[in-house]
Each structure stands twice: as structure tokens, then as C-alpha cells.
Amino acid sequence: MGKTLFEKIWDKHVVRTIEDGPDVLYIDKHFIHEVTSPQAFAGLAKRGLALFRPDRTIATADHNVPTKDQHLPIKDRLSRLQVDQLIENCKNFGVELYGLGHPFQGIVHVIGPELGITQPGMTIVCGDSHTSTHGAFGSIAFGIGTSEVEMVFASQCLLQNRPKLMRINIEGSLNKGVVSKDIILYIISKISASGGTGYFIEFAGSAIRSLSMESRMTICNMSIEMGARGGMIAPDETTFNYIKGRHFAPSGEEWERKTSQWKQLFSDEDAQFDKEIAINAENIEPMITYGTNPGLGIAINALIPSIESITEEGERKNIIKALEYMGLQAGKPLKGMPVQNVFIGSCTNSRIEDLRLVASVVKGRKKSENVKVMIVPGSQQVAAQAKEEGLNRIFEEAGFEVRQAGCSACLGMNEDKIPSGEYCISTSNRNFEGRQGAGARTLLASPLTAAAAAITGVVSDVRELMEQ
Amino acid sequence: MEPIKIIHSTFVPLAMENIDTDQIIPARFLKATTKEGFGKNLFRDWRYENGEESRPVKEFVLNQRVYQGKILVAGKNFGCGSSREHAAWAIHDYGFTVVVSSFFADIFKNNALNNGVLPVQVSESFLQELFKQHPDASLTVNLEDQSITIDNTGQKEVFQINNYKKTCLLNGYDDIDFLLSIKEDIEQYEQQQY
């Protein structure tokens, strides 16, 4: 019987199996950041251990960092301590750090791919659930807790149970105004925020093949939002072309050797999945969420579901509670509703292509007076490229605030927060209560839909702006 | 890690589904560099009005004195969202040793097990039975025979846990001790593969 893409990579990384227990899985690359690593370093020191393979770990500072005046000391004392602790730990344990001030600094899931560190066939982990992003390159990438960070530090291995496998086939061509963020929000709205739990998901089909690497990353990034351990896409020419020539990409003979290996990374025709789902890309419209988990999403012109239409009691209670928090009414449209904030950024949508999408809508227009718009490139390299391409000027002329690289208002732990009670159309990944700041109300959407709201000041169908 | 064998305790019912780790411990409390002290911020934004400790939300279950115990019982898909282990630390630090739900998010489940918190997955009907119990009702969670029992009614369900993790919890072992013990295998693997 043939093997799935997942099985080919997993099997190659099993150091040994434990009977009626997990596999010992070797980890090729380990990304770390300031928030989920300090206790792991402390644990290691307490055991009197060094890093087993320090050259396989790469660090950056992203969650806590301000996105304004990064050349100045961090104002928030606790944030500063955490970032300083990372600097000290990396120095003491011999870990390469792309910290504030370094040209490679940025959101961990943006810098790994753009530096060519993320490559097909690898096992990649990080103490961050959105590590699934790297699966877009045909690698097994997943988020881990701090105890597991410590395990990788100590042994370059993890004890992992083999997950079940799901394949989601998306066939057909995308409608106008529909981008990869809409695909993933659509899928999660269909299978729910827990529909992927216990599974590793392979995304396949003609709609996926047609996507750029940036777009594929957005999809894999949010596979965790349906509970999946990770998402992945088989590598192809698009993948190889993206990697070629990047800072840490293989070159010369090594490139030839690697690409011939990478070309074997696909699910065999007779490979078996525990579950398969088929999606018709033509059914997907620009999406937006109305609730407090990413599964509560609708097409931009649709109505919020009526309470009566939800038959399952637990789900009905969830939606009533979510709508109360969001200050929204069941059965009503979202389109046309005023928003006070637009946030464009995060590991989901802060890459150069996302910025170009936003610029395509915004060029020559001004933002609505009623909204505050923050655009935060995912890395120093993205920021530099945006500037070079003249995107910054488009954003600044529109009245957007262009910030420096970091996680920013995605998670309300740095200075960038959405005020309590206000709405924010956000290109990030989570609309949980308080995620963007206590009391903040998040509407998840694509960079195009966010750009449309920035211009109109209300929830808008971007296709109407594209026609003008 | 403290070994876990039998936990006999009353429980705290939190009848909500999809409780994400941002609710268990909001991101602004993730700035600590040690594992201690997260319990006071467990469910912070549900526990207090505007996060002010002087203004507890009366209806919230952690603020109701009738509900006490080492066991937290919550709706399905508990611990979804962020991989922050701080969520497991907060639950442990608050004093819970067991979390019962009809469905757990994967990363949370691992994080709990790595911190001496036992996730007990029960059927939806058993979970609903738990939510109907009087605040005095106690539960017995027996890791050895993998069972959870409502003491006064005798209703019992068996839960799943793999043998490796079970042995670890029963003895208080952790995964790093194990991984360090197979270092030769790891080095051999590296030589073969790279």
C-alpha cells in the first residue's frame, strides 16, 4: 500500500517506537521565541544540561515586542525582561538569535520560510500553535508546549503519538475577490473549530496547486483553528521556486540532491486517509467571522445564522454567548456595520503578497475617517521589500499607520491592543474573547476584505470596490 | 512531578464549550519567566469585572463557594487555541489535578499530561450527567483502572490513556528522563540519516 505525504516524512524521523505509547520523533528545526522558551531554558539549567543540538534551534523576538520605535528600550518592564531573558539564554546556550535590531527579525512563522530555513520533508516545531504554517512547504510542522520545548533542547526529539490523517481536496478555480484566507475560513466554518482535532491535514486539489507559497502558508497556518495538529501541502515547482536562492537554501549540487528528494514528497495514489473531505472552490465567497471562535464565519453578504436554525443545544448556547460578547444580533447581516479598527498583520497575513493585496485595493484611496488602520509587516525583510516596492507610500497616503515587524495586535500581549467594546476587522487568526485586548471584538477576514473596510469604514464586500 | 493514582474530590463544573487557552490564561499574563503564580490569573477575564480583583463576577463558578475541589469539569473542546503551556500551569497552580471534558484539544492534552494534570475524556452523556449533580457530589478518578465514578450514584465510565503516559503519571516520571536515557539511539539515528 502506498504512503501519504505525512507518513513518508514521519516514518523517516522515527528514532524508535514505544509499545502502546508514542513514537520518539527526531526534530530537524526548532524555532523559539521569548514567551514560551524561558521556563524551558530554566528547566534545562536546573538539570545541568546543555542544548543537545544548538545548531538546529533558531530564535527570534516577536510576541512581546513593540511595533513602534524598536530602536528604543522596550517600555513595558515585563516585556523587556522577557526579551532580555531570551538574549541571555541564547548567549548562554549558544542559540542563533534574530532579535530586535537584526535584519532577519520578525514573526517566527514569517522568517523561517523567507530565510529558506523551512524546507520540504523536515520536522519542524515551535512553542507556538501556528507552527503549522511551515507545513505549506511539505514538512511536518506543529506547535508544542514549553515542556516539549525543553525535550527538544535536551534531546532534539519529542514523544509524539501518530495522529489520524485527513485530506481536504479543494477543486476548481477561485471566484473574484476570494483569496486563501477565505478558503480556510470557509473550511473551518464547515467542519467547526474542533472538526480537525486528532488529525493532521493534507490540503490538496487544483485550487491549492494554483496558490502561491504565501497563500498556502495562510491555509496551513489556520489548520490549528479547526483543532488539527497541523496542515501540509505537497511541495511542487511553486515551492522550489520560492525556496531557491534564499539565505539558507541549499545551492549547487546540494540543491540538485535536495530537490530530487523533495520531488518524492507526495501522497501515493493508493495512500489511505482516515477521512477525506471535498470542497468546491467555486462555492467560496469572501468570508468574515461573527463569533468568538474561527468556526463561526459566514460569506460577506450572508446573514448571521438565526438561533432557531441551530439544532444542537451546546452549539446554540455557544452562539448566544458569542453574539452577546460581540454585540451582534442573530439573523442580521454584518455587511454595512461600522468598524472602528482594521488590523492587517500576524503570522497569518503579513507577508509581502498580503501587503500587495491590500495595496491593490487601497491605491489612490483614503481610509475612512472613522477607522484606525494598523498595518504591520511580518518581518524586517517584508518591511524593507514593501518600502522598496512603494507599498508604504500607498498605505501612508491612505492614512494607514505602518508599523514595524512583530505579532502586534493579534494577541494583546504587547502595546498594540484594540480598545474594549470596539470592532476590529483583522487579518489575524483568532477571534476569541479578549484576544486582541480585553473586551475587543474581532471579525476575522482576508487582507482584501480588511482593506475594503479600511476605505469604507464599514464591513464591505471588496468586490464592489474592485469594480469601481 | 507528583505521582497521580486515585483522586477523590468534589468538582467545579464549567458548563461551557470551546474554552480556549486565551480564556484560561489571557495573553497579557504570559510575560513571566517562571512557571509559578499563574493560578491567580486562571480565567481572569471571566472571574473579575474589568479584570479587577476587588470585583469578582458572582455568577462565575470559581467565585461560588459551594463549588470546590481538585477536579474541573468543562464542556467539549476544552483547551483549544494557543499552545501556551501557561494554561496547564494555571490550572495546576490553582489546585486542579484532573480536568474532565468530552473532548480535549490536542496540544492542551499533552501540556496537561506533562504537568501532572490528568485529562479525563468522558462521553457527552456522562459529562451532562456530571453537570446535573449537586455541588456536594464527589468523584473518584482512578488512574490505575482508568475509571471515573460519581460516588453517590455509582455511575462509572472508563477513560483512555496510553500505557506509556499512564506509567509516567503513576510514578511521577517525566519524558525528559526517558529521552536522556535513549541518547545513544538518537545519536545512532543521526549518523544514519544525516
From TrEMBL, chain A:
CDD domains reported in the protein's UniProt record: IPMI
GO biological process: L-leucine biosynthetic process
Reactions that this protein is recorded to catalyse: (2R,3S)-3-isopropylmalate = (2S)-2-isopropylmalate
EC number: 4.2.1.33
Chain sites annotated for binding [4Fe-4S] cluster: 347, 407, 410
Pathway: Amino-acid biosynthesis; L-leucine biosynthesis; L-leucine from 3-methyl-2-oxobutanoate: step 2/4
Keywords of this entry: 4Fe-4S, Amino-acid biosynthesis, Branched-chain amino acid biosynthesis, Iron, Iron-sulfur, Leucine biosynthesis, Lyase, Metal-binding
Transmembrane regions: none
Enzyme class: lyase
Cofactor(s) essential for the protein: [4Fe-4S] cluster
Gene Ontology molecular-function annotations: 3-isopropylmalate dehydratase activity; 4 iron, 4 sulfur cluster binding; metal ion binding
Domain Aconitase/3-isopropylmalate dehydratase large subunit alpha/beta/alpha: 7-457
Gene3D superfamilies noted in UniProt: Aconitase, domain 3
Family matches, as SUPFAM superfamilies: Aconitase iron-sulfur domain
Signal peptide bounds: none
Cofactor note: Binds 1 [4Fe-4S] cluster per subunit.
InterPro entries: 3-IsopropMal_deHydase_lsu (IPR004430), Acnase/IPM_dHydase_lsu_aba_1/3 (IPR015931), Acoase/IPM_deHydtase_lsu_aba (IPR001030), Aconitase_4Fe-4S_BS (IPR018136), Aconitase_4Fe-4S_dom (IPR036008), IPM_dehydratase_rel_enz (IPR050067), IPMI_cat (IPR033941)
Function as written in the Swiss-Prot or TrEMBL entry: Catalyzes the isomerization between 2-isopropylmalate and 3-isopropylmalate, via the formation of 2-isopropylmaleate.
PANTHER family found in the cross-reference section: 3-ISOPROPYLMALATE DEHYDRATASE, HOMOACONITASE, MITOCHONDRIAL-RELATED
Subunit details: Heterodimer of LeuC and LeuD.
HAMAP family: LeuC_type1
Family from the record: Belongs to the aconitase/IPM isomerase family. LeuC type 1 subfamily.
UniProt xrefs under NCBIfam families: leuC, PRK05478.1, PRK12466.1
Name of the protein in question: 3-isopropylmalate dehydratase large subunit
Automatic annotation (TrEMBL), chain B:
EC identifiers of the protein: 4.2.1.33
CDD domains linked: IPMI_Swivel
GO molecular function, one term: 3-isopropylmalate dehydratase activity
Keyword annotations of the record: Amino-acid biosynthesis, Branched-chain amino acid biosynthesis, Leucine biosynthesis, Lyase
Lineage top rank: taxon: Bacteria
Pfam family, one: Aconitase_C
Entry keyword annotation includes Amino-acid biosynthesis: yes
Domain Aconitase A/isopropylmalate dehydratase small subunit swivel residues, every copy: 10-124
InterPro entries in the cross-refs: 3-IsopropMal_deHydase_ssu, Aconitase/3IPM_dehydase_swvl, AconitaseA/IPMdHydase_ssu_swvl, IPMI_Swivel, LeuD
Annotated metabolic or biological route of this protein: Amino-acid biosynthesis; L-leucine biosynthesis; L-leucine from 3-methyl-2-oxobutanoate: step 2/4
Enzyme class: lyase
Catalysed conversion reaction: (2R,3S)-3-isopropylmalate = (2S)-2-isopropylmalate
One GO biological process term: L-leucine biosynthetic process
Cellular component, GO, one term: 3-isopropylmalate dehydratase complex
Function, as annotated: Catalyzes the isomerization between 2-isopropylmalate and 3-isopropylmalate, via the formation of 2-isopropylmaleate.
Quaternary context: Heterodimer of LeuC and LeuD.
Family: Belongs to the LeuD family. LeuD type 1 subfamily.
Full protein name: 3-isopropylmalate dehydratase small subunit
Species annotation: Flavisolibacter ginsengisoli DSM 18119
Lineage: Bacteria, Pseudomonadati, Bacteroidota, Chitinophagia, Chitinophagales
